Structures are given as C-alpha cells and as structure tokens.
Amino acid sequence: MTPRTRLVVLxxxxxxxxxxxTGVALHQAAQQRARAEAxxxxxxxxxxxxSLTGDGPVLVFRHTGLDRDYGHLAxxxxxDPAGPRSIGDATCDRVDAVPGRVSCLRVERGVVTRYALxxxxxxxxxxxTVPLPGxxxxxxxxxxxxxxxxxxxxxxxxxxxxxxSTSTEVRSTxxxxxxxxxxxxxxxxxxxxxxxxxxxxxxxxxxxxRSFWATVATGGTxxxxxxxxxARTLTAVRxxxxxxxxxxxxxxxxxxxxxxxxxxxxxxxxxxxDSGEETVLAGEDRGVDDQAAWLDDDTLLYxxxxxxxxxxxxxxxxxxxxxxxxxxxxxxxxxxxxxxxxPREGRSHPAGRNSRSTK
Length: 359
Fold this sequence. Notes:
By secondary structure, this protein is mainly beta.
C-alpha cells in the first residue's frame, strides 16, 4: 500500500467515526434548545419573583427543573414548599439568602469563562459584583447579611478529587472590604501553629461578624476549625468534620462525617457546643455531599441530586431531635419520586428544593 493509499484509507476511517459523533452532538444541541424553550416543569405563580419578601416566611433556592428557567432564583412559602413557586430573572450556580440579601455565585460562560459573586438586594437588583478565582462551590452570608463567604475550586472540581485546591474568601457585602483568603490565616492544631503547604479551607458558617466555623483539610485529615476574623486565626477543634452549619440559636453545629461504610460515605452529625457531645444522625443513609442549612433549631435542609435526572436535585429535611427520623422531601414533578415515600410517623417535615429559609 502506497503512502497516498494509506492516507485515503485513514481519511475514510476518520469520516466514518466523525459522522456518528457529529450526529450525537446535533442531537444533544437539539435537546438543549428544546429545554431552553420549555415552559416551567412545575406549577409557578403568574408573576415573576421580584422581592425576597412575601406574605410570610419563604424558602429561597435555585430552580433546577429542566426547562427555560433552569438555574434561576426561586422561592416558595415555607408553609407550602411543594406548592407553586415564584421564579425570578437572576441566575445562580450557588445561592444563599438572609433577609434583605442574596449571595449568588455565577459561572459566566463565553469565549473566556469567568466566575463572579453577584450580591442581590431585597428587590433582587444587583448591588455588587466581585470576580471569583474559580468554579463556584459554596457560599454563606452572616446572619445580618454584612459578610459573605465564597469557596471556589481553583484546581479540580470535587472534594473527592485528588489534588483539588480551593480558595475561600470572606468580604463585606456591597463590594466592601475584602477580609482575604482564609488559607492565609494562622492555623493552630493541637495547641501549636502549623504551616502546611497543602491546606484547603471550605464550608464557612458564621457565628457573628467576627467568628465563624469552617473545614480545613491538610495531610489527608479534615479538621473542624473555629475562625477569628480579627485575630486572623483558624483553631482546630476536632477531626472528621466537614461543611459545618450553625443552628439559629447558636448552640449546635451540624456537619458531615465520613462513616464506617467502605470508601467515602458521609452521614450528618450534630455537635452540642456546650457539652461537646457529637450525635451521628441515623435517618439519612445516602451519603449526602452537601453543606446543610438549618430550617429552624430542630430541622436540617440539604440537597440530593436525582439519580435518574442529571442536573436536577431536591431539598430534603431531617429532624435532628427525633431518633431514627427519616428524611422528608418534596418533588418538582407530579407525584413524589419513587425513593421519596409518603410521610409517616417519624418522618420530618417536607422541604422545598435547593433551598434555604429566609424570613
């Protein structure tokens, strides 16, 4: 076979492979266009969401229905989380809300992909926009909305991925003072300052405008740390604790622990800050990878992706004071999903989807 003949054969082989791949790409593009034009996949109110306030407390969340409003900010009444939702115009990849303030982390796709923290006010108008160094992962606002924490991946895209690297920053809202990257804070473990080069910080939850809790990973170990913004310190309190969330009354921390199951498998645990007693919750056994939020002093909210619908997730709730309580949920499609059994004795209250409460 001559070189020319070989070239022609190679070209024919390449063409034979390329045509099916192109067909798949065109099919996927058609599906994406259809989704972008589809009406909301769940009941919605007639008017768009233009404010954080309602007739009563609401759950604010990121809508993940596979329709034209995918990724948009939305809300439902707290007393009817499975009811019609109000959907706004703002799009977010991560969101947190407190009265009068929303932290919205956004991926801005284009020729050059950029990442940003967009702060929204009570009327959901953009109050400030701050560039971020990487892929959005976590965000939390302080109780009074004056501080915001953001965590992004600057290398990798998962906490399970080897070699991932995060950047967690705290700043004043309204584009105010940048407190800085928490990796630059002094880290104290077992009473002495350490300076590991592999530290990663994520999962901030604020106590007030000075103190916070967070996760620090170094040397293959995760630490629950107490942070001080004025002293610029992170002090390790215990190991095997990730993504803490402080209860509204400030007495308990909920976080993930890697349980005894093979591999990495997370369960939720609650730490009593007065007694130091940790209780691992038995009701949720799916290995949830999320930073929980407290609905009230007794109930956790957290997101769970649907195994049969990539990109779609629901928020579940879990009663932390009821031994063996099973998680409750609400669905965005007609009828509950097959793994969400009807409520029964011992089940916690249903929650909205991808949500955190704001009152």
